[in-house]
Amino acid sequence: MQKFYILLCLLFFFNSVAWAKEAVIKLSIEEIQRLGLEANGLVLAARSQVNIAEAGVVSASAFPNPEVTFTAGPDTPRLPFELTGPSSMQRQVTVSQPLENPFLRSARIGSAEAGVEASRANLDQVRADLAAQLRVRAYELLLRRELAAMESSIFDLMEEIRRRIKLSVDVGESARFELIRADTEVMTAASRKEAALLSAERARVTLFQLTAGALPPDFEIVAFLNDPVDLPTLEELHEQIVITNPDILRLQAEQDRARLRIDQERASVLPSVNILYSNYQDRQFTSNTAGLSVRVPLFYRRRGEIDSAIFDSARVRETLEYRRYEVNRLLESAWQAMQIAKRRVEMYEGGIIQEAESALRVAEAAFRLGERGFIEVLDTQRVLRGARAELLQAYFELQSAAAEIDRLRAHYPKE
């Protein structure tokens, strides 16, 4: 019975370990972006701003309500009763219905609709910015983990070399100074390893922050730093950005809204008309009258409001022209950064890493045979470490430049 109990416990333990391994959720970069775009508070706030702008269109399209006035009261005779008769009640109902200027109404509705387009473009801008940040931070996490793995392997190597030096010191083949120097290098490698692990954890926390905690606690990124980057040519990107960049689209919508605001202010100068209807009743008479009430802009013709709208339209137009120029320059800068990163990757993959690895293997073999000292191994290891770190950084810069280009052209997982 006791053996059966022990066997059952072992079976439960191994099943728990297997379940824990299966509980690690693997996510691609695109899936991480989708999670962030659905949960991030800034995106939700920008989407609410679109809803507010759409409600503004409903308000702008509404017709003015009529105004009803009701008055009543008794007649009080001022002459003798024999001449006027008994007192009575009188009442009057007046209905006033504004007739809206069609030019003013059309401009107001158009301005509200342009506001909706501006809000949607702003939402696209927020989503594109967040998607680019998520992509960069995800690759940064991969970079930090690769650096941590590299520092761990270096620490293991330093530990092995220290063990060999300690044996040599114990048998009297090497001076104790070599062991002290090896201990120092081991502690330095341990410090770099710990710092790399902490940097990886910080990058992981940043991803949790950008996704508002939507990421599962245990997740793995299904991507690599050397993932291929597939983008159109620079000429095609220039053509795309003009029609897809959210900031340009937002400024275009704001320009339309500013232009319609000018039309709205100019239409406000036209006379406004109200239709009036009145019903009056007293003891002897019933009266029905109708008429018009016209407000004539005789003294003030909204010159200040019109000039303000004109200057605001000029401001938006000049901002749009500059932003178009700036976005194209940002695209060229990101493209050049990507080309530089590609060139660095080709240089390090083309021979630098292989030569540094070969030099380290030769130095390790010579050290084991006693032909070379600890310094030669340490120097070659530092060269290889620097080359690997530069290669990983070049991979990361390549992915970051591609993410910036996708941000400028608003290329991200759509809903």
Structural class: alpha+beta
Low-confidence stretches: 1-22
| H/E element sequence | HEHHEHEHHEHHEEHH
Q: Sum up the overall morphology in one term.
A: elongated
Number of separate strands: 6
- Largest sheet geometry: 4 strands, antiparallel
Mean pLDDT: 85
User: Percent of residues in beta strands?
Assistant: 5-15%
Instruction: Please estimate the helix content.
Output: over 70%
Strand arrangement, major sheet: 2-3-5-6
| Rg | 39 Å
For the termini, the CA-CA separation is: 58 Å
Count of alpha and pi helical runs: 10
Topology:
Elements: H1 2-22, E1 25-27, H2 29-39, H3 41-61, E2 67-74, H4 81-84, E3 89-99, H5 102-170, H6 176-210, E4 219-221, H7 234-244, H8 246-267, E5 272-281, E6 286-295, H9 303-368, H10 374-408
Parallel strand pairs: 1-4
Antiparallel strand pairs: 2-3, 3-5, 5-6
Description:
This protein is α+β, with helices and mostly antiparallel strands and 415 residues long. Helices cover 71% and strands 11% of the residues. It is built from ten helices and six strands. The strands form two sheets. Strands 2-3-5-6 form a four-stranded antiparallel β-sheet, with no helix packed on it. It has a two-stranded parallel ribbon with strand order 1-4. Helix 2 packs across helix 5 and helix 8 runs antiparallel to helix 9. It is elongated. The two termini are 58 Å apart.
In short:
The chain has helices at 2-22, 29-39, 41-61, 81-84, 102-170, 176-210, 234-244, 246-267, 303-368, 374-408; strands at 25-27, 67-74, 89-99, 219-221, 272-281, 286-295. The chain has 415 residues and is α+β, with helices and mostly antiparallel strands.
